[in-house]
Amino acid sequence: MCFFTLFSFAQEPTANKENFWSSVEYGGGIGLNFGDGFFSGSLSPNALYRFNPYVATGIGLNFSYSSQKDVFKSTVLGGSVIGLFNPYREVQISTEFEQLHVSRKFDDRFVTNLKEDYWYPALFLGAGYTNSNVTIGIRYDVLYDKDKSIYSEAWMPFVRFRF
Question: Which residue has the higher pLDDT, 17 or 46?
Answer without folding.
Answer: 46
